[in-house]
Write a structure and sequence with these properties.
Blueprint lengths: L3 E5 L4 E5 L2 E5 L3 H12 L3 E4 L10 H14 L17 E7 L7 H9 L6 E8 L7 H8 L4 E2 L3 E4 L7 H10 L7
Parallel strand pairs: 1-4, 1-5, 5-6, 6-7, 6-8
Antiparallel strand pairs: 2-3
Helix pairs in contact: 1-5
Length: 176
Amino acid sequence: MAKTLIAFFSRADENYFGGAMRYVKVGNTEIVVNQMKDLIDADTFKIDMKDPYSPVYMTCIEEAKKDLRKNARPELTSYLDSIDAYDTIVLAYPNYWGTFPMAVATFLERYDFAGKTILPLCTNEGSGMGSSEGDVRKYAPGADVKNGLAITGSYAADAKAAVEKWFAENGLKKGY
């Protein structure tokens, strides 16, 4: 039986919402991931950095920019033993500086995605997928990277219908 993994990076604390800063206990990407759990049978793995970015939004984005410029590979708090059991990986993350946070690169480079399908989902406040789809292809050679879904973070709580349609377009449904 085919198995699906939802791997995601999400950040709570102070976040940017359509022109204003707001403190949140659950990050936008994780809000969308929690909706996914109602739509498909999948295991989940949260990509957490050992040394997380600042809870202050403006400091966080500067730290993320520094990591991107250095092509850093932040250490994660934990790793999966293997992804061999999974055929499909839903990879969800926020858009940081036009792509995914570098902790996602840490995750991607750790495993062999050859022959696997990756569905990228990116939360953002207007910058869409950026270059992240191409970057997923770069860091996960041999994977079949499908067209991603961009979700505006301010509307993450209302993303379920869009995610359900995207899953259906990609052959994922409950029980898959």
